[in-house]
Fold this protein.
Amino acid sequence: MSETLVSLWTDVRRRLEAAGIDTPVLDARLLLEAGAGVSRLEIVTDPRRVIDDAQVSAVNALTKRREAREPVSHILGRKHFWTLDLAVNANVLTPRPETEFVVEAGLQETLPTDAPHRILDLGAGSGAIILALLRDRPNATGVAIDISEKALDVVRANAEQLGVADRLEIRQDNWAASLTERFDLVVSNPPYIRSGDIDGLAPEVSRFEPRLALDGGPDGLTAYRIIIAALPRLLKPGAAFALEVGLGQAEGVKTLAEEAGLSTTEPRRDLAGIPRVVVGHAG
């Protein structure tokens, strides 16, 4: 019996459900689109289209990877974030919706929009945060720092694809160890998972995401201590910072910032009401 778009989609969905995937309907569609080379519109408007054996084999190969809990973003090599379509791979943390609140906070702190701004992203990963800011702030320039050269290769590729490479300097560094410049805005989504908790996370994270981007030390706050200690010398007078934090970490990070002589505001909350971004200013 010949496979159709809808029959293969149904089969993939059932396989993903059996594998314990949280979003089997969405993932099945994405894998069908990628493997069969069809669009969402084609699936919806022509669901009974017969597809050939090569398309079926390609979809099955992608499905096997997802059944093994490899993230869809790694399988497809892409992830939507903010208004961007970003290249991602196993060398960078897959951008998450919660991180968009860092972008939102950063945009609010870089008003007026037509003024020049210098932005620093510490632990840039795929470049999601700083690239979103540069796309929305055409007069801004920035520096993206990561300790991983393989991660910085992803930043370069994304900056080129998005047309902002001429406004972004990319540096390999251990946080801000070698920086002497001051910035109008410093942003970061640092590793904040407690070391002992990583192996208990979903397989998509614990087995496939780079541990360097996850491991926040014994209490999850190691990176914040390093970043916050550097902020007084990295920020211009009155300049802002926005740091993503994990569940239950906002107060601890606020305290670290205030002890470093920085002022803080009420943390930005995500759609679930969880304090997600600690925002503050230099004196």
